[in-house]
Design goal:
The complex is a heterodimer of chains A (about 400) and B (about 425). With about 400 residues, chain A is an alpha+beta fold. Chain A has 16 helices and 12 strands. In chain A, about 40% of the residues are buried. Chain B is an alpha/beta fold. Helices cover about 20% and strands about 30% of the residues of chain B. A 6-stranded mixed sheet of chain B has the order 3-2-1-7-21-20, covered by helices on one side. A 6-stranded antiparallel sheet of chain B has the order 24-25-28-27-26-29, sandwiched between helices. In chain B, helix 1 packs parallel to helix 7. Chain B is globular. The chains are: A alpha+beta (about 400), B alpha/beta (about 425). At the A-B interface, helix 3 and strand 3 of A face strand 26 and helix 8 of B.
Chain lengths: ~400, ~425
């Protein structure tokens, strides 16, 4: 963040960006939320309150496409005939809607049918630890393998491909970070990674075209009206989006969930006694410690927020994690309460870009947290707070070592 | 509030149920009595014109979810027939009189009947308001009628036409105004939606009224004569001419009430003939006629699902407030409709507008959003298949944004064209559903 003028809120935002505060930004958010709106620099604003953010996420004047974004060189065309700019996460309506709808049609029914596979996958990951006492790193041994295994299942690729997917997920995930936070080297790596991903997918897509199966790729290739069907480049970026958007986020959700439960033994005991409480636990983790802390848009026209007119073209950042603890919206917001009835958190965003994978994330996290609660005997945190990855937006521990006396079969 | 206090809720549909639940939720521990004219427990009405007619769900599956145990006395199948304010008693259809300390009027509305009783009584002629109506209509629709005549192109009529189309039935819609839905959304948007209805094969006759329903000589409908002189053969007619508020039972009670509703203030207190707010009588839901504080518009009943919930919350809060301050209903009016593959959502009061502009998409095909303005202030918005942008437009209405505001979304038209919204004065009243 470049501060060209003295903006009073810039220093606290700097502290939020500072990795040294990554383990607990919530006191800073609380301080920030005393005001509904902050100006961070000449053209960047930060919104903190639940009602403002919930509304802005559903405002047609909030654009996700980068006004400075350049088409690829050489230019590739999307199925609407305009230059391809990226997955639908960075597209506005109407083309966004066309692509998202096709993806929803194929993706949602498949993930709803995956619950059993997800349960099996989670049990296998814990079974691999044996039954005696030991230490599990929740991040590397549960939270990471889970979403990669699920995406392999969806795409119908063998488990042997998991390391490849894992590598692509790590590589492409940097693309979700704000452009200005990437070094030139990282940007170059990202471009290479995207090209390699497309090249990796080409034979796979060709094979499904020739011999359609029941997998997601085969489904996408035959989805809807051929006139508006996404083309190969869009399919590749959509599959990449499903891989990365569902990856680091799920890792954070599962890890944040285990961490929060171990810090709240009462909630852990209740979940152990009644695994049917998992949905409420996961919703509260999503509110209390969301995997995606902040999101951003640009104003296509002047927008009034908290009495201030934000001019056209300015960037508007929305601190989802602060809104989730907004005392104007939630009673006793700093308390972790899985029995909370009124829990309209913003962890999945809202509006046209509402998280496509919300249902999948819920199934994965519910399964993982109930398994941890019911199978680990006397689990305890070895490092509290754990070490966090530096990323501020997709915030989560780099590792989470949990010791236990045994794992039940 | 003492334990001996009794609150009577006249009306046991959405508003009545929700006010009762909110009263208990606020800690009201006195006696609660709910009076409903239908024999059924409170059920959800919006599906009646849609998934019930198409057969996707039966009317036995519409019961409204209960959010708490009410410990209430239910008088179902007996309408409230009179109000004695001096002695605080409600008379019901079986002759009983129910005393109250506080009364909530939630008696709603009914479908406006066909004006000629002999024609209205023909077999095959239907109204649609309650679940028994829907069951009867559904039975006639599955008997493979030659054609269905829908009289009235408002929301109920259009949804019925859509359901009949889904059942594969030929449909004629007779609309007095210049376009379907023109009363609620104006001619510009109504024309766009009418073109889409026609593209589904609906025989839409605008600027036309049905003058007579025809008897086959055996008491069964065989068709209708229209104002343009044509005859249409049809075995089923659905009369969808708007609604009439159920307020006759209040005659002589000293409240300001007529078929347009019972007047109340923003705190939901009934207005008496001398113009003051009654402290012991509240009005909510479709029967409540009030002036929304955000709009410069005459008082009107807002016959929307969300309004029933808002007012139930307001009335319950005020009935249990003790010495606390009054709650006022301030939420923006909103409603939705599903028809012909379109989800239509509205916020604000489009029908009071004088101008309209397309802000996203296209009138011709695909999703679109139209924004309404009056005296250069934004007063409402309608979104077709774009429900997820409505909160942004609601904010423009809430802040009285200058009309037309800049949107400049990726799918906004390149130039802003402001059009006359096309509300004929005669169309403004009545008929919203």
């Amino acid at each position: 963040m470049t501060t060209t003028q003295p903006y009073p809120s810039a220093p606290i935002y700097e502290r939020i960006l500072d990795p040294a505060n990554r383990h607990d930004p919530y006191p800073l958010y609380a301080e920030l939320s005393a005001d509904p709106l902050h100006q961070l620099d000449e053209h960047t604003w930060l919104v903190t309150r639940h009602d403002d953010i919930a509304r802005l996420l559903r405002d047609p004047r909030m654009s996700v496409s980068d006004p400075q974004g350049q088409p690829l060189d050489p230019p590739l065309l999307g199925s609407d005939g305009t230059p391809f700019r990226g997955g639908f996460l960075v597209l506005d309506p109407p083309h966004h809607d066309t692509l998202r709808k096709q993806t929803m049609h194929q993706f949602i029914p498949r993930i709803l049918g995956l619950r059993h596979n997800i349960e099996e996958l989670v049990q296998q990951l814990l079974d691999a630890k044996g039954q005696g006492p030991g230490v599990i790193d929740i991040v590397t041994e549960l939270a990471y393998p889970l979403p990669v295994g699920v995406i392999c299942e969806l795409l119908g690729v063998p488990r042997s491909e998991e390391p490849v997917f894992h590598r692509f997920a790590e590589l492409l995930t940097r693309g979700l970070d704000p452009e200005e936070s990437l070094s030139e080297q990282e940007k170059a790596d990202l471009a290479v990674g995207r090209r390699e991903w497309r090249e990796y997918l080409i034979p796979m897509i060709a094979q499904r075209q020739a011999e359609p199966g029941t997998d997601l790729i085969s489904g996408m290739l035959a989805e809807g009206d051929p006139e508006t069907r996404m083309n190969a480049i869009e399919l590749g970026s959509t599959l990449g989006l499903l891989l990365i958007a569902g990856h680091e986020t799920t890792v954070n959700l599962v890890t944040n969930g285990v961490l929060t439960l171990l810090r709240n033994p009462g909630a852990l005991d209740r979940l152990r006694a009644d695994p049917d409480l998992a949905p409420g636990v996961v919703e509260e983790v999503l509110r209390y410690d969301p995997p995606v802390q902040m999101t951003s848009r640009h104003a296509t026209a002047p927008i009034r927020v908290a009495g201030q007119i934000i001019p056209t073209g300015d960037r508007i950042r929305m601190m989802l994690a602060a809104a989730n603890r907004d005392p104007h919206r939630f009673a006793d917001p700093e308390r972790f309460d899985p029995a909370r009835l009124d829990n309209a958190h913003l962890a999945f965003g809202g509006g046209v870009h509402y998280c496509l994978g919300a249902a999948l994330a819920r199934i994965e996290a519910q399964t993982a947290l109930s398994a941890i609660a019911t199978r680990l005997i006397n689990p305890r945190l070895l490092d509290d707070p754990p070490v966090y990855r530096p990323n501020m937006i997709l915030r989560g521990p780099a590792g989470l070592r949990v010791a236990y006396d045994g794992i039940t079969a | 509030m003492t334990e001996s206090t009794r609150i009577v809720v006249a009306g046991a549909s959405l508003a009545g149920l929700r006010v009762a639940e909110a009263l208990r939720g606020n800690g009201f521990d006195g006696e609660l009595v709910l009076i409903g004219d239908e024999p059924h427990e409170p059920y959800d009405r919006p599906p009646l014109s849609k998934s019930v007619l198409t057969g996707r769900i039966g009317t036995d599956r519409l019961l409204l979810a209960r959010t708490r145990t009410l410990h209430a006395r239910w008088l179902l199948g007996v309408a409230a027939t009179g109000l004695d304010r001096a002695n605080r008693r409600v008379r019901v259809a079986d002759g009983r009189e129910i005393g109250y300390d506080r009364l909530v009027i939630a008696t709603g509305a009914r479908a406006r009947p066909w004006p000629v009783p002999a024609e209205a009584a023909l077999r095959g002629v239907h109204l649609l308001r309650g679940r028994d109506d829907a069951d009867r209509l559904r039975a006639d629709l599955v008997a493979a009628p030659r054609r269905v005549l829908v009289i009235g192109g408002g929301f109920t009529g259009s949804e019925v036409a859509s359901s009949c189309h889904d059942l594969g039935l030929p449909v004629t819609v007779i609309q007095r105004g210049p376009a379907p839905l023109a009363g609620a959304l104006g001619r510009v948007v109504g024309d766009a939606l009418g073109a889409r209805q026609r593209s589904f094969g609906i025989d839409l006759r605008v600027g036309t009224v049905a003058e007579a329903l025809l008897d086959d000589g055996h008491g069964r409908l065989t068709g209708a004569v229209l104002s343009d002189g044509t005859r249409i053969g049809a075995d089923v007619a659905v009369v969808a001419l708007g609604s009439v508020r159920n307020t006759e039972w209040l005659a002589g009670a000293g409240l300001r009430a007529d078929t347009g509703g019972v007047d109340c203030d923003t705190a939901c207190r009934a207005i008496t003939l001398d113009g003051t707010a009654a402290e012991d009588i509240y009005v909510i839901g479709d029967a409540a006629r009030w002036r929304h504080p955000h709009f410069d518009a005459p008082p009107a009943a807002l016959e929307h699902w969300g309004n029933a919930l808002d007012q139930a919350e307001t009335a319950a809060r005020n009935l249990t407030r003790g010495g606390g301050s009054l709650r006022h209903t301030t939420g923006l009016p909103e409603f939705w409709s599903d028809q012909f593959g379109m989800n239509i959502k509205s916020v604000g009061l489009p029908h009071i507008a004088d101008q309209v502009t397309l802000t996203q998409g296209s009138f011709e095909r695909g999703p679109f959003v139209a924004l309404y303005g009056r005296d250069e202030v934004t007063v409402g918005a309608v979104a077709i298949n774009s429900p997820r942008v409505m909160d942004g437009y609601a904010a423009l209405v809430a802040e009285c944004a200058p009309f037309p505001p800049a949107i400049d979304a990726n799918d906004s038209p390149t130039t802003t064209r402001v059009l006359d919204a096309g509300f004929a004065p005669a169309l403004v009243s009545g008929g919203l559903s």
